[in-house]
């Protein structure tokens, strides 16, 4: 059956293997194929020869006993979701296995067919969600690195083109066309501010992200879009950043005009005059709310002696 869930069972007790097969047969709407092995070594051979969706793992095998069995199984099947099988007096090991990253544990003989089927389905979906979340995180981090590199390149070009006087006081008004072009290059909330924190330029994406007007941004009213508990802390951190002359790298919670709260990654780099004094900062805001919302629920279904 192409849609059957492929189960790799590592269990050396023939009676327990038979019991699992009979338990799963009671769930007509749960198509499955169960392949069993009585040792880790035999389980590895099975795993290498066929595709499996999930592993049912007894912690007491002839060639491995206790919680180390999880680590050994992970060595040859690192991406396969695992549900651990424990005896009634070994539930502590089941919880330890959860802390090691397995998806669930079940007490032998304590789960009916539907509970077992539900636990297997949940473990597969939970593992899939975790993989997708990690992929989304990796892609987001790569995108942040790429956009940061683009921003730094654009800022170097600006610094080479503008003389010290323009960088210090007239970059926005006298070179608006250049800034607008940079704003188009960086569609993730470009901003430039003076050393005091007053915004002298923001891109259209920045205004759309915060729901503020340009006038509000210039009056430092842009801090009003932060959630209340972050405002004073942000001002103090900004002053500390200026004193150090370092890079600005913060995650902020912004309350948009429609009342929704967005998570924003805010990064900036200092701009120096020819004496080395910081005259302004330039950076970008990247909305990472959607990536954070991919976080899967961590509750475990069918755990323990659920009936």
Give me the Rg, rounded: 28 Å
Helical stretch count?
Answer: 11
Strand content: 15-25%
| CATH class identity of the largest domain | Alpha Beta
Task: Name the CATH superfamily assignment of the largest domain.
Answer: PAS domain
How many domain modules? 2
Beta-strand segment tally: 12
Major sheet: order of its strands? 2-1-3-6-7
Shape: elongated
Helix fraction?
Answer: 40-55%
- The CA-CA distance between the termini, in Å, is 28 Å
CATH architecture title of the largest domain: 2-Layer Sandwich
What fold name goes in the CATH topology slot of the largest domain? Beta-Lactamase
Topology as a string of helices (H) and strands (E): EHEHEEEHEHEHHHEEHHHEEEH
Task: Kindly report the average pLDDT value.
Answer: 78
Helix and strand content put the structural class at alpha/beta
* Major sheet description: 5 strands, parallel
Spans of at least 5 consecutive residues whose pLDDT stays below 50 are 163-175, 293-307
């Amino acid at each position: 059956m192409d849609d059957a869930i492929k189960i790799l069972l590592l269990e050396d007790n023939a009676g327990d293997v038979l019991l699992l097969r009979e338990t799963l047969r009671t769930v007509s709407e749960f198509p499955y194929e169960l392949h069993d092995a009585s040792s880790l070594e035999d389980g590895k051979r099975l795993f290498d020869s066929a595709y499996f969706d999930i592993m049912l793992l007894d912690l007491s095998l002839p060639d491995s006993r206790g919680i180390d069995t999880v680590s050994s199984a992970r060595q040859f099947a690192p991406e396969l979701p695992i549900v651990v099988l424990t005896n009634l007096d070994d539930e502590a090991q089941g919880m330890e296995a959860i802390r090691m990253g397995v998806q669930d544990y079940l007490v032998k003989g304590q789960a009916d067919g539907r509970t077992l089927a539900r636990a297997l389905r949940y473990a597969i979906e939970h593992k899939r969600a975790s993989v997708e979340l990690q992929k989304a995180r990796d892609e987001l981090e790569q995108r942040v690195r790429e956009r940061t590199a683009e921003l730094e390149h654009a800022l170097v070009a600006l610094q080479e083109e503008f003389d010290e006087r323009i960088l210090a006081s007239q970059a926005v008004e006298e070179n608006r066309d250049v800034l607008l072009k940079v704003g188009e290059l960086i569609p993730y909330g470009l901003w430039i501010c003076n050393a005091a924190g007053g915004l002298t330029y923001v891109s259209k994406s920045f205004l759309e992200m915060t729901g503020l007007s340009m006038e509000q941004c210039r009056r430092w009213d842009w801090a009003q879009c932060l959630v209340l508990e972050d405002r004073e802390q942000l001002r103090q951190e900004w002053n500390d950043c200026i004193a150090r002359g370092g890079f600005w790298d913060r995650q902020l919670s912004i309350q948009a005009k429609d009342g929704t709260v967005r998570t924003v990654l805010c990064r900036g780099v200092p701009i120096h005059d020819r004496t080395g004094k910081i005259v302004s900062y330039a950076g970008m805001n990247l909305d990472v709310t959607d990536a954070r919302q991919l976080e899967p629920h961590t509750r475990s279904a069918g755990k323990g002696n659920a009936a």
